[in-house]
Amino acid sequence: MKIRAAVARAREPFRIEEVELDGPRADEVLVEVEACGICHTDLSAKDHDYGTPLPAVLGHEGVGRIVALGDGVTRFAVGERVVMSFGACGRCTSCASEAPAYCRHSRDFNLFGRRLDGSSPASQAGLPLTGHFFGQSAFASHAIAAAHNLVSLGDDLPGPLMTSLGCGVQTGAGAVVNVLRAEPDDTIGVFGCGTVGLAAIMAARIVGCERIVAVDVRAGRLDTARALGATEVVDSAQGDLVAALKRLGGLTLAFDNTGRPEVIEAAYGALRPRGRIVLAGLSARGASLTLDLNRLMASGRSLRGTIEGDADPRTFIPRLYDWYRRGELPLEQLVTTYPFEQINEAAADMLAGRVIKPVLRMT
């Protein structure tokens, strides 16, 4: 079938073009896309040579309605509304242990944007396009999605606000709840207050953390962080971050989504004995940390990374729905919507910090 898709080429604006999309294979569905969030990962895949073959149809925070089922799909029905999350095979050891973010095939699905046999459902003028990015490629009017990626979405839930539950909000909230396992007596520092960081702040408030410290370089983001639950803020553009953190008296937990080594080292240095830091930011290629290994050993601190907040979307996204319905996850404070045709404007606004989470409306 012929669809409209935003085709990505390296360091060029997106172009909305006609693309040919195959029907769903076994364990796949065809989704008419309602909305899709834009994430920094999409722009890194397009412009920073992280390995995604171009040209490509990107987009990995899609919401839509199923219009066709492939063979073997029994959990969903035609007409059902869904959130599309990241790609995973559903069969490997990690998937079987409810850790699909660490699927043995995650690079194929989520970075290289291909099925396990190397194929793509999308083509243009007879030539293949990367069209299975994060198991969906949702910058399009329609997407072929792996059924294992999908989570049912009630008709009462606003599609544009639900898009980032598939990645950004899931990552931030999951890092706090699933990885750091924050508790009421914790003092948590959140470094970077975009979608992921603000989701972490909301989750820290929901679990009742005693102190929630938001760190960013934009005063407006820090204002939003306060509104969403931060008890203290640090504007790291206005002075020495290490000194500012020292004045706080130490952190029990830290979450970084900036990917900047100097920020991570400052956050690590602010941890109390046995403190824990989790990293979710995409760093520049070749970036590294310098840590005092004796201090690491003697303090009992720990540092680890996370993908998608260690979430299993099938159980964690419904939990996020519940928080939203109870008014505890005010996603409307993050989202700005744009018509699909304004994808380049939306991306530019995000990069410039004018908006937090741009969401494209396809319908």
What does the model show?
Belongs to the zinc-containing alcohol dehydrogenase family. Its cofactor is Zn(2+). This is NAD(P)-dependent alcohol dehydrogenase. The two termini are 18 Å apart. Strand 12 (211-216), helix 7 and strand 13 form a beta-alpha-beta unit. This protein is globular. Helix content is 28%, strand content 26%. Strands 3, 5, 6, 9, 10, 17 and 18 form a seven-stranded mixed sheet that branches. The protein has a six-stranded parallel sheet with strand order 13-12-11-14-15-16, with helices on both faces. The protein has helices spanning 40-47, 93-96, 106-111, 159-162, 168-179, 195-207, 219-228, 241-247, 261-269, 293-299, 313-325, 343-351; strands spanning 2-8, 15-21, 28-37, 56-57, 62-69, 81-84, 122-124, 127-129, 142-146, 150-152, 187-191, 211-216, 232-235, 251-256, 271-279, 302-305, 335-339, 357-361. By secondary structure, the protein is of the alpha/beta class. The chain folds into two domains: 2-155 and 330-361, Medium-chain alcohol dehydrogenases, catalytic domain (Quinone Oxidoreductase, Chain A, domain 1), CATH 3.90.180; 170-307, Rossmann fold, CATH 3.40.50.720. The longest helix has 13 residues, at 195-207. The protein has twelve helices and 18 strands.
Quick synopsis:
The protein is α/β, with parallel strands linked by helices and 363 residues long. It contains 12 helices and 18 strands.
Search tags:
ADH_Zn_CS; alpha/beta; 363 residues; 6-stranded parallel β-sheet; zinc; 18 strands; 28% helix; Quinone Oxidoreductase, Chain A, domain 1; oxidoreductase; Rossmann fold
